[in-house]
Amino acid sequence: MANFKHQLLDENIIREYLLDNPDFFNRFPELLIALRLSHHERGVVSLVERRQEILRQKVTQLEEEITSLMNVAKQNERIFLFNTELSFQLLACEDLGALRQTLSEGLQQEFGFTHVRLITVHDIDSELANIWRHRIQNNYYFGRLTQSESKRLFGSEVGSVALTRLSNENGQVIFAIASSDPAHFYPDMDSLLFSQLRRLLDHLLPTF
Question: Where is coiled-coil annotated (predicted)?
Fold first, then answer.
């Protein structure tokens, strides 16, 4: 045990020394060739080969991360442009019927949603009132519904939903979107587009 502790101590000292002296192998380049490392695919390789492989792996990882970020940026740009165009179309609507149609057609065509609804909740309707009070406690709900809730909101079963309350100035109104994909809406998803549409609807509905 004493020998093991001594060996571990020596290894830690060597590790700390190398970290503090990153130019060590520049002063002793022959060690780069002499040192050998085990490799799960290629057997034993030199330190130089191992370092090159690690660098290639890091480059590959960075390229994948950059590609992912570029895809996210393109998606965000697409959503921004769509939201801007839809907002102008909604502002041009002259009545509530036109607004409902424009909102529904725009979201369904762009994202393939199955249902888009503006639903007025009356306390006499206990099931809708329960959804209003409990499903949308924090103003938003993303995820799955029960079969009964789906049929009450959309008239049929759906995969996943995004629900939000409009402001009290509009009464008790639920803005609801449904997708056939059970995984499309999920609890931790970003709500930026949804919240922007909610604010616009809050502004427009009292004018009709």
Answer: 45-79
